[in-house]
Specification:
By secondary structure, the protein is an alpha/beta fold. Helices cover about 40% and strands about 15% of the residues. Strands 3-2-1-4-5-6-10 form a seven-stranded parallel β-sheet, with helices on both faces. A two-stranded parallel ribbon has the order 7-9. Helix 4 links the parallel strand 5 and strand 6. It starts with a strand and ends with a helix.
Amino acid sequence: MKILVIGDGALGTAIAQQAGKCGHEIFQTSRKNQQLIPFDLKNEHKFTNLLEADWAVIAAGISGYKECADNPESRLVNVDRTIKLCLFLLNRGTKILFPSSTAVFDGQTAFPEPDTPTCPNTEYGRQKMEVEKFLRQYPNQTAIVRLTKLLGRDTPLIAYWLQNLAAGQEITPFKDLTIAPVLFEDAALACCKIMEKGGNGIFHCSGPQEVSYLEVGRMLCEKSGFNSELIKSATCKGIIDYCPPHCGLDSSATEEMIQFKFPTPKQVIERLIQARNKRH
């Protein structure tokens, strides 16, 4: 297949690399990397430089709860321009894979299913929901892939914690904020399999368990052999605005469809440590 990846952030690059390994022809865009197709979602109007493809992955945009709440351009990029781009691609006969987020839910219910009604509490979640609503008008041409927290060996928080622990310095992970982590490479694998199988509809990619950032810190410490006394519990209240009790998604239907089980948080941390050790 020919796959057009819009964006060269961590997820877009992971999908492009995984799809390339599977033998697909990849076209990838970037705002800055001159070796890729030049494309700036905020400033593009005609999309004439985008090559034709079987699938397009929309992995560009402004992400993060605070960034979308504070940046007045986030709605322009994440909703208006994204929908305009999707409409152009759909009219050209290209299928769309849209990475969405657990943020389309309010975090009050554990592991919602793909058909659970959306109810976002954040601007980021509302923007994702609006694009989802548009794409659902094209059920035979679109795949919406909702993701939980994605981690990689270069994820800034993980790298910062490991650097501090290695230096004998304390880290202060939140005891009251949870994640159901998925590795970037596993999310990319799932997206590739969904496209290969011609998947349409809504798919969930989530770790099978919710764990606090404090537990993640302790697992990192244990697997790396650092002093556990360097882990100091902290609260997210008063520091960040959005602290939902739940973050996981029910991925059982997706796992059955792609024949892949998302690793547990412990397995995710083990693989992260192994990848960093090989690198260093």
